[in-house]
Specification:
The protein is an alpha/beta fold. The chain folds into two domains: 8-238 and 430-452, 3-Layer(aba) Sandwich (Rossmann fold); 252-427, Glycogen Phosphorylase B (Rossmann fold). It has 15 helices and 13 strands. The protein has helices at 18-35, 51-58, 84-106, 122-127, 140-155, 190-201, 218-224, 252-259, 279-292, 333-338, 351-359, 369-378, 398-407, 410-429, 435-452; strands spanning 8-13, 38-43, 64-68, 108-114, 131-136, 207-210, 233-236, 266-269, 296-300, 324-328, 342-347, 364-366, 382-383. Strands 3-2-1-4-5-6-7 form a seven-stranded parallel sheet, with helices on both faces. The chain is globular and about 70 Å long. The termini are close together.
Amino acid sequence: MEQLSTTPHIAIVPSPGISHFTAFTEFAKRLVHRHSFSITFVIPNDGSLSKAQQSLLGSLPPSIAHVLLPPVTLDDLPAETTRIETIIALMLARSLRNEVRRLQKSTRLVALVVDFFGTDAFNMAEEFSVSPFLFFPGAAMCLSLFLHLSTLDEAVSCEYRDLPELVKIPSYIPVHGRDLLEPVHDCHNDTHKWVLHHARRCRLAKGILLNSFEELEPKVIEYLQGEELSKPLVYSVGPLVNIKQSSKSDGSECLKWLDEHPKCSVLYVSFGSGGTLSYDQIQELALGLEMSEHMFLWVMRTPNDIAAEAAYLARDSQNEPFEGLVVSLWVPQAQVLAHSSIGGFLTHCGWNSTLESMLNGVPLFAEQRINACMLTQDIKVALRPSADPESGLVGRDVIPKVVKRLMRGEEGKRIRNRMKELEDAAAKVLGEDRSSTRALSELALIWKAKLKNQPH
């Protein structure tokens, strides 16, 4: 019989989204570099990998392998109404078992790490005597909400957005129900049911890996790491962000354009890898940016409510040029945010974009609901535009005012200084014997101890 390697092995099951994928790969690289593990990414097969995913996987060291799960038949599901959360759960249920069995036989498999929508794999992990762990790619505040969601759901009889009182999240500032994450808004929606299902199963994990750090969210992380019998141990191992700069990229033209502009003079506008705006909001944003008379770099994606081939950028005036550059679909965001000419970031405030901005000291113009609450009211590194209560749109008249406050006003200077403090703190927590490095070492010790109990 062939002798197995003595190297402890981890199986990581990410969700398809590229921002989550990036955080997973950064965690894997750090674990391999510091603690000499080997890792296999087990990727649900929803079609071919994106170019960004292929690039990420191609850059990983040899000790990090990847396999695509075999395609599964989903013909029994109504294609028009089936949510991505349902698809992910069924992909894992129908195709993960054989791969876990293969890894258990061919490696010294000690842990299965899944993200939020993979908690149904926990039972399978226990079946193969492998420790189940949850990787949470968002903020500690969001994790606190998810761990509390089942209790909250039982206490609320209406939709969260209709609650007259503020919602209390453990160890966090109260927020309005309308600012909670979109998936929990409609209790009759399948997505809400899936989120609630996985929120309950989070507590079955042996531990939760958190992409945040103590200096950023001290009160919430202290609460999450407190002793509570029904709550898993939480390891804050962040920030997990790919900030390595390459010499060339597909977006080099926009970097050349940035080279032509003064320090902190350009507003970067992007709503994440999956974030798209409605047609009407794009029109308001375009006109608002033009009215601001401020230089900007805008990564524009197709509106979420019209056909991809439609002409969707209307202009009141076709004769006057924009004060900026509009790029379709993609730019090398890490390099853009690190560029000296970037002075602000208008973003959906997805957690990956937020951490990237923080690690480069770039102030935020915040849009996504619950993260925007945290960044404006708690951490105080962002400005948030007010939306029209009826249409839900941020109007063209609001946008230039916020842009000027962020890019030229005293508030922008204060936020920039605060961002610099967090940039320095983020760098320190990844140093030797600092909080995030210690948390990773604790995990490594637990997983290596599991290895000692396995038969050779």
